[in-house]
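Follow-up to my earlier ticket, as requested here are the two runs.
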Amino acid sequence: MWCGSPDPHACGVDLQIRMLVVWISRSACLWCGSPDPHWLYQNFDKLHHQTALKSTDREIRCTCYLCTMQFSSSLLENAVNEFARLPGIGKKTALRLVLHLLKQDTGVVQVLGETIIKMRQEIQFCHRCHNVADGETCSICANQMRKQELICVVETIRDVIAIESTQQYNGLYHVLGGIISPLDGIGPDQLTIESLVTRVQQEQTEEVVFALNPNIQGDTTIYYTQKKLHPLGVKVTTIARGIAFGGELEYADEMTLARSITNRQPVENYVSR
């Protein structure tokens, strides 16, 4: 397009950006409706540096050089910008949410705002397992009907909710707050591993179950924590890993398939479940 070469790889410009400009030059711009491709060519360097392309989900987010939203109210604009700061929320989705709130009664919006503020100001973390709680102790640790001698170690609070949803676990939890990842600058001192060791020492814990993600960081965290717990004589286990129910062997990765074969079990045990 710019160098005249029929080979798209011969041009030194980024392929995704070049395809974007060619596509827009054949039709009107999705953001401003301008059919003029010369503006794109003249401002290509700015477009290249200011436009974030995500080939995975085919999202194209443009900044000030491509038709930013025009608001007639600064209050509306500020609200949209604040919603857009949330994870997974773009400007269009934020605008849709804000416009939805504008259609609601003032009381409904006020309750929503007060609920969010109250949640952020009054929520606490359990001093025992580091899960979210309304007080010093969460409802799970305070429940004497649960197995106090069994602790499931998870990475985040979201994992606690996921395991609780299965209704198959009746023990306690311990939230590490992350996993060991040197590349991300996360070491053992930034996690609640020492708190777990102290807890096992003080309580009559019989088994510690690790429910961490099956990757290098997760296995590293399990290995390090297990070394810390080994002198205490507590039983250390991890959740089973293998082919997901309903999955196909053809699409399973080699590591998962290898673990499934190594940790095979009798058919009687599998069928009885």
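Run two:
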Amino acid sequence: MAGGPWVKIPIRVKGHVVPGFRNFGTSSCENPVKAGISPRCPPGPAHTIAAPVNHQQTIRLAVIDDDSGFVTVLAKRTEAAGWQQRTLAGAIPPEELVALKLNALLVDPAVLGEEAWAYLERVCGMLPELGVVVCTSRSTVAQRVRGLRLGVDDWITKPCHPEEAIARLEAVSRRRRRARPQIETGPVVAGELEIRSDRFQAFVGEVSLDLTRREFELLQLLADSPGQVLEREAIYQRVWGYAMAHGDRSVDVFIRKLRQKLEKLSPGWSYIHTHFGVGYRFDPEPLAGDAPLAPPRSEPREDAETAPVPDAFTAAA
């Protein structure tokens, strides 16, 4: 049966009501309020679709679709569910998708044109942990099979209800989380600092640094690459999720806040080091050998001149 969505409605035949079907035409997306509801059936609580999302899990979603009506309704639903959604005008390199730290990608291949298959293959191959869902209009069996074999996790045919799209995206993200190695949940110990990704927090002893979500993501990013210098632009893109504007000092501001909290609970250590004009490096070092306190003022002048200068001092300006 070609055409639009087929909806089951009652038909009266010789005084009897029997089930039948009616084609309501083709549209880009069903009305999210009246989807699947016959005009003879008054709306009520029974037709309300509750968001099935686990609010403890924030899903980061990117959408490549030019159907403004569908994207707008989907954005409202994902926002109500606590998700973070970004709408992209077209294909972006997989390397930039990595910087967005996505859980799922919803894409309409029709927007990508002739490069659709190559792009899907490249994204699925380079980002095996990213859930990819295709949402497009009528397609052939051969096209769906090809997409799934390239690595697409699910295929939705338009017109579709945004709630169904959300449920499928959530299922894909859930399967990806279950497939991840459990070793990722272990704490990272550096100096006196313990970084707990399962609690989105860092501790010195049993005392929490009381980090905000953004501060924790910044600290975790630096700690995941100990001894490496990360450029400001790269830090901003991976933590904030988009390119840094010229003159933006957000990275420096948050680094300063992090240092203040680290110095308060762990004053004998220097964790984040500045590379002027470049970026920052995470490399825990005791400030003065094994001693947690600064050298006494009575030390000879030559010893004070040769004593190592903490990197934290130069970064306070």
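The only thing I checked on run two: The domain at 60-179 is CATH 3.40.50.2300 (Rossmann fold). Let me know what else you need.
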